[in-house]
Structures are given as C-alpha cells and as structure tokens.
C-alpha cells in the first residue's frame, strides 16, 4: 500500500510542478504539514481545505485533512477525525458540490467511528454527513472524484482490492448508493 501512496504522490507532484507562483506573505501556515499535501480546495468562505499524507499541520493533530483560515492558520473547529486504513491515512482528492458539501476521497477506513471506505461527505461545517453512505467495497483507495454536470451523481475512481487489485470506476447516487443502470465491477 505504501508503494501505491508513493506513486500517487509522484503523479501529483508532476502535475503541480508547473503551478509554482509567488508567495503571499499574509498567508502563513507556520511549520505546515508533517507530510506531503496531495489536494487543495478553496472554499466559498475564503478558507482552504488541505488534504494529504500528514498527521499534523502546524503542530495541530489532523490525520490527512485540515481546514485553514484565510491567513493560513489551522481552523481548530474543523476536525474530520479520519481513521487509518491499516496503517495509512491520507486524502488524495477533494470536491465541493452546489450545497457546499465536501466530498473527501483517499486512504482511510472511516471518520469519527463511522465506517467509510475511502470516501465520505462532510457538511460545510466539517461534520460527517450520515446520509451519504458510499456503496464501495472495503477497503477502497479513492484517487479521483467528479460530480456529474447535472449534479445527479458522483464518479469515483481508484483501487478497490478484491482477490487482487481491481482498478475501477464507480458511479454513485448522491446518497452513496450505486447509480441506477450502473453495473458494479465484479472482483476475483
């Protein structure tokens, strides 16, 4: 699993290599994360969601996901409490929908005691949305997410181990159930 995470990191770094800009001195993250950042999502509030393979951000314990205030400081009111999958925990992709709900994909087994195999949805305030229960096999490593143009469904790509490793694409309804007409892959 560690090799997979290193591969995902390498792909992300190659994509980010051309996005180097000028530092904003008003945005200060202090010591920042203790591991790589793999996903960044600006929020309508001006805050920033940051996901990656870290266990703390600027000294504040946060397993793979943190919300930063406009000045770069950690928003301590936001804690998704991600739980590791085996010994790994990280966020590889973030999306927000029209209702400001946040989709979080990556390598984790749940949030705050609720099982969620590599995919969960948070309310705008960071609380787990209990109405979204993804119909993905466990364990799952979610590497990409896309909301359908009409907002009716969610496409999920990643690795879904069965009897071996299954590379796959899933289509889910917004409650997490498999979308009508979509045939889930068979493993083995």
Would you mind describing this structure in some detail?
There is one protein chain. This protein has 188 residues and is mainly beta. It has a single domain (28-173), classed as Methylamine Dehydrogenase, Chain H (7 Propeller). The protein is built from 1 helix and 14 strands, in the order αββββββββββββββ. The chain has one helix spanning 2-16, and strands spanning 37-42, 48-52, 56-57, 60-61, 65-68, 82-83, 90-96, 102-107, 110-111, 114-115, 119-122, 141-147, 153-159, 167-173. The strands form 5 sheets. Strands 1-2-5 form a 3-stranded antiparallel beta sheet. A 3-stranded antiparallel beta sheet has the order 6-9-10, with no helix packed on it. Strands 7-8-11 form a 3-stranded antiparallel beta sheet, with no helix packed on it. β1 and β2 form a beta hairpin. The longest helix has 15 residues, at 2-16. The radius of gyration is 16 Å and the shape is globular. Mean pLDDT is 83; it is low at 13-18.
List the helices and strands and how they pair.
Elements: H1 2-16, E1 37-42, E2 48-52, E3 56-57, E4 60-61, E5 65-68, E6 82-83, E7 90-96, E8 102-107, E9 110-111, E10 114-115, E11 119-122, E12 141-147, E13 153-159, E14 167-173
Antiparallel strand pairs: 1-2, 2-5, 3-4, 6-9, 7-8, 8-11, 9-10, 12-13, 13-14
Brief summary of the model shown:
The protein has 188 residues and is mostly beta strands. It has one helix at 2-16, and strands spanning 37-42, 48-52, 56-57, 60-61, 65-68, 82-83, 90-96, 102-107, 110-111, 114-115, 119-122, 141-147, 153-159, 167-173.
């Amino acid at each position: 699993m560690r090799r997979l995470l290193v591969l995902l990191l390498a792909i992300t770094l190659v994509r980010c290599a051309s996005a180097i800009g000028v530092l904003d001195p008003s945005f200060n993250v202090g010591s920042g994360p203790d591991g790589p950042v793999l996903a960044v999502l600006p929020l309508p509030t001006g805050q920033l969601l940051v996901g990656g393979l870290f266990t703390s951000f600027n000294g504040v314990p946060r397993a793979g996901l943190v919300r930063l205030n406009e000045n770069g400081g950690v928003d301590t009111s936001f804690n998704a409490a991600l739980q590791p999958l085996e010994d790994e925990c990280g966020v590889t992709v973030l999306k927000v929908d029209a209702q400001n709900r946040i989709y979080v994909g990556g390598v984790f087994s749940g949030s705050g005691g609720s099982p969620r195999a590599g995919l969960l949805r948070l309310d705008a305030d960071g609380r787990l949305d209990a109405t979204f229960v993804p119909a993905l096999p466990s364990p799952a490593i979610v590497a990409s997410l896309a909301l359908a143009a009409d907002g009716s469904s969610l496409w999920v790509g990643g690795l879904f181990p069965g009897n071996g490793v299954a590379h796959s694409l899933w289509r889910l309804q917004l409650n997490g159930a498999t979308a009508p007409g979509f045939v889930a892959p068979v493993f083995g």
